[in-house]
Amino acid sequence: MARWRDTKKGNITKKTDSEQQTQNVIPNQSASPLFRIKAFITDMFMIMMPIMYITTYIILDGKDSFQGSEMARWITMAVYGLIVVVLWVKKGQTPGFKAYDLILIDDKTKQTLGFIPAVLRYFMFIISAISIIGVLLPFFRKDKKTFQDLVMNTSVIIVKRKQV
To answer: Which strand (E) or helix (H) includes residue 17?
Structure first.
């Protein structure tokens, strides 16, 4: 990442779209569960918290209205899911994944997921998060895959960007 002062002086130029897409993928280097947890927490703060704030204080009358509305909680989860799915499809990364240099790819094609597989993976994520086995699975597997990765044949891998 370039510093502002270097960019302003012209030492570093803005990358084109094709240069930004060139990333060196480390083969068979699955992301550790710790990085995935950190990425998830980052996503919760950057995506879910603004959605919940808007729902609670702008759309509803406050905390008590939000807590009393089952529908509001489901809608916030659905909006969060839609945003995450769109990010998975477009770039293979959420803000949390980008912060920790992770990317979600399909095991067969080595490309980002399509819309339907991404939606199905999100539903598998919800099922995995509910069960204790789904949460602990990557800690006991050599390839560090989660339940949703196994079911959908995906991988969360580490990427190294080319340095300018």
So the answer is: helix 17-21
- Contact between 103 and 25 (Cβ < 8 Å): yes
Q: Which of 27, 49, 24, 35 lies closest to 146, judged by CA?
A: 35
Radius of gyration over alpha carbons of the chain, in Å? 18
Is 73:60 a contact under the CB 8 Å cutoff? no
> What pTM value is reported for the model?
0.77
Which tokens in the block code for residue 96? 């949390």
Mind listing the pLDDT tens digit for each residue in 112-143? Answer: 999 999 999 999 999 998 988 888 899 999 88
> The tokens of 104 are what?
């979600």
For the chain, the first-to-last Cα distance in angstroms comes to 9
